[in-house]
Design goal:
By secondary structure, this protein is mainly alpha-helical. The chain contains nine helices and two strands; from the N terminus they run αββαααααααα.
Length: about 230
Amino acid sequence: MNLSFFDQFTSPHLLGIPLILLSMLIPALLLPSPDNRWITNRLSTLQSWLLHLITKQLMMPLNKKGHKWALILTSLMVFLLMTNLLGLLPYTFTPTTQLSMNMALAFPLWLATLLTGLRNQPTISLGHLLPEGTPTPLIPALIMIETTSLLIRPLALGVRLTANLTAGHLLIQLISTATTVLLPIMPAISILTTLILLLLTILEVAVAMIQAYVFVLLLSLYLQENI
C-alpha cells in the first residue's frame, strides 16, 4: 500500500518510451497562438493580460539591465504554472514532482545569474560573501557560511518545488482513498472526508500557483543581486 501511493510520481512509459517529454509539451499546446486579426477573442485577451501582469510583477524589482531576462522568466513562470495545475487533474502526471527536472531548471538559471554578476561586477558579487564591518576573527567562518548558502540556492529551489507538490499529491490521494473506503461503512464520515478533499484540492490549486511564482521570483531576486 505504501508503494502504491508513490506510483503516481513515476514517469509513465509507452512501449518503453518515457512520456514525460509529452507531458511537458502539453501546456504549450493549450496556449492559443497569436494571430494578425485586429479583434481577438476573450481567451487571447485574457492570455495577454495575464502575461502582462506576470511580466510586470517579475520585472518590478529589476533595473533595465535585468529586463532582457523578461522573456525567459515569464516563459518559465507560465510553464511551471500550467504544469502544476494540469498535474491536479485525474489520471495525469506532474513532471514538476521530479527533483531531477526541477534541478535541471534551477541550476542552469542560478548559474547564469551568478556568472552574470561575476562578469559585470565581480567586486560587488564577491563582496556579498563578506558583510561589511565583520570582525577579523570571524572572516573565514563567514566566508564559508556565505559560500555554502550561495551554493545551496539551486538545491533549495528544486527541493522546495518538489516537496510542496509531492506532499499535496500524497495528501489528496490519502484522503481520497479514505473517502472510498469509508463510503460503504460510514457514509456520514465519508461525506465529511469528501468536503475535506474538496477544500484540500482548492488549497492545492493555490499552492501550485504560489510555488510557480515563488520559484521564478527567487530567480529574479538572485538576478537582482548580480546586476
